[in-house]
């Protein structure tokens, strides 16, 4: 299988809104959709009642979160992936579950040489007509990560 095939596996049956495989150095190996990016950008945040413009380096904060149980403390804007903000709900042995707004979330699974990320959005429908949900998205990402770990990645 190619790396694109692995990324497309995350999207099969429309279980996930987006997903990617990222090297532990922060390089994107494959993503679906292909427009997925980890970028540097600015975002406005509320800092004790005052609006503050903060620089965000999505690659840096993702790698920091992976190394610190889902927390990206060096950025006041927190963990952002593809311009979506994430809050860690649970981190357990290299697997992190995240909430993003009221109707979406994601999962990060750490492998030996790479990181699998997948996002769900319950406003999107899966192939079976049901809304995307954390259970199906998490299972797809964790199954892919197990395959990659088994192949030495």
Describe this protein's structure.
This protein is an alpha+beta fold and 153 residues long. The protein is 24% helix and 39% strand. A hairpin with a 2-residue loop joins strand 5 (79-81) and strand 6 (84-92). The two termini are 13 Å apart. The mean pLDDT is 96.
What brief labels describe this structure?
153 residues, alpha+beta, 3 helices, 9 strands
Task: Summarize the helices and strands and which ones pair or pack.
Blueprint: H1 3-11, E1 18-23, E2 28-32, E3 40-47, E4 50-57, H2 58-67, E5 79-81, E6 84-92, E7 95-100, E8 104-110, E9 114-121, H3 134-150
Helix count from the secondary structure assignment: 3
Instruction: Give the distance, in angstroms, between the N- and C-terminal Cα atoms.
Output: 13 Å
SSE class: alpha+beta
Give helix and strand order, one letter per element, not per position.
HEEEEHEEEEEH
Helix content: 10-25%
Shape: globular
**DSSP strand content:** 35-45%
Widest sheet: strand order?
2-1-9-8-7-6-5
């Amino acid at each position: 299988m190619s790396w694109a095939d692995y990324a497309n596996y995350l999207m099969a049956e429309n279980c996930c809104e987006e997903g990617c495989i990222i090297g532990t150095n922060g390089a994107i190996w494959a993503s679906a959709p292909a427009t997925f990016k980890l970028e540097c950008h600015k975002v406005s945040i509320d800092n004790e009642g005052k609006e503050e413009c903060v620089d965000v380096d999505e690659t840096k904060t993702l790698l920091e979160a992976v190394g610190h149980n889902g927390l990206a403390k060096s950025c006041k804007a927190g963990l952002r992936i593809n311009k979506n903000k994430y809050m860690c709900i649970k981190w357990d042995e290299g697997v992190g579950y995240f909430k993003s707004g009221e109707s979406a979330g994601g999962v990060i699974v750490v492998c030996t040489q790479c990181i699998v990320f997948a996002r769900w959005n319950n406003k999107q429908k899966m192939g079976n007509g049901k809304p995307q949900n954390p259970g199906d998205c998490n299972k797809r990402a964790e199954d892919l990560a197990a395959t990659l770990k088994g192949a030495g990645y």
